[in-house]
């Protein structure tokens, strides 16, 4: 019986190993479509010994990644640990079109030079999560460039305008009279064609990618392939616990930030949000996670678990020594403490530039002086050194410090 017949029969029993793999796959996901099909793919893989092909495509639109970007990479690593083949697809061709997902205007296309520059650091950073030696790296220009004009026309004939207009962002833009360029229709088609070229069994993406992932599934049927399943991951909230993690919102944890900075930022998240980070980012097993939650319910200090999470993440993106040093640094600063009697101020206008924040908090005479203090490493938020002069501070409550003796408890809205 060939692999396709095995799947089509849909009568393969689900062993304990397959059910465990399915539970790991579903951990923290937004949707797994279609779950029954994927269960059978897992069962077939176990029976034949042939690993599944798991695809993740990323357009190199920016050179740096933060923890929010790693949510889907973390899921890829879990699937990699289960023995499946993960394909890290760099969208050097699709980047030139520009992904319209979630956009209310046409996304500016990147130049070839910008794409190549950004792509240089992409896999290096992704390898902090993935097992680089077991990862298949591909560029979609491999099969997209050779398509040519004839191939693009043939591919375009496989999807109707009506089906494209089912996309929520296209529908909203059309109703609002906002221009939609014809080339934007090509993006989901080309992403879908990637799945055909790679013969993907499963494609991962954020929740905003669902339409594109489904196009890949349909195109595979058109090309006589077994359709891929799709798995969407939620968007990780940032340090404020409200908005999605974003550098522009200043609520991010960069994966290349210093270990001490990363540690302190993890410690700043709320106890409630800690579980979300554990679920989406930690390698902690489902059984251990359940045990941790039970321990907290029975009186264990959640701070201890937050420390463990902070150490795990620093060790992953740096090394164990950096994690140990970060813990020591955090404890030393904790012992130093913050004076009990410090001025309080309430400000508005979040997100607020760090220079303006220092000025309006009366810790610096001018925003320029504040930026100089940032350059000199003399500014801290909740004990963490701020090094980014372009930082936009999100709303919340925090202690702002300049030098060793100037403090302010700030409520920013």
Automatic annotation (TrEMBL):
Subcellular location: Cytoplasm
InterPro entries according to UniProt: aa-tRNA-synth_I_CS (IPR001412), aa-tRNA-synth_Ic (IPR002305), Rossmann-like_a/b/a_fold (IPR014729), S4_RNA-bd (IPR002942), S4_RNA-bd_sf (IPR036986), Tyr-tRNA-ligase (IPR002307), Tyr-tRNA-ligase_bac-type (IPR024088), Tyr-tRNA-ligase_bac_2 (IPR024108)
Gene Ontology cellular component annotations, sorted alphabetically: cytosol
Keyword ATP-binding: yes
Residue sites binding ATP per the record: 247
Gene3D superfamilies: HUPs, RNA-binding S4 domain, Tyrosyl-Transfer RNA Synthetase
RNA-binding recorded as keyword: yes
Pfam families registered for this protein in UniProt: S4, tRNA-synt_1b
First-level EC class: ligase
Keywords: Aminoacyl-tRNA synthetase, ATP-binding, Cytoplasm, Ligase, Nucleotide-binding, Protein biosynthesis, RNA-binding
A GO term for molecular function: ATP binding
Motif interval(s): 'HIGH' region: 60-69
PROSITE patterns the record matches: AA_TRNA_LIGASE_I, S4
Domain RNA-binding S4, residue spans: 357-398
Main location: cytoplasm
Transmembrane segments: none
EC number: 6.1.1.1
Catalytic activity: tRNA(Tyr) + L-tyrosine + ATP = L-tyrosyl-tRNA(Tyr) + AMP + diphosphate + H(+)
Short motif ('KMSKS' region): ranges: 244-248
Source taxon at top rank: Bacteria
GO biological process, one term: tyrosyl-tRNA aminoacylation
Quaternary context: Homodimer.
Homology family: Belongs to the class-I aminoacyl-tRNA synthetase family. TyrS type 2 subfamily.
General function of this protein: Catalyzes the attachment of tyrosine to tRNA(Tyr) in a two-step reaction: tyrosine is first activated by ATP to form Tyr-AMP and then transferred to the acceptor end of tRNA(Tyr).
Protein name, as recorded: Tyrosine--tRNA ligase
Organism annotation: Solimicrobium silvestre
Lineage of origin: Bacteria, Pseudomonadati, Pseudomonadota, Betaproteobacteria, Burkholderiales
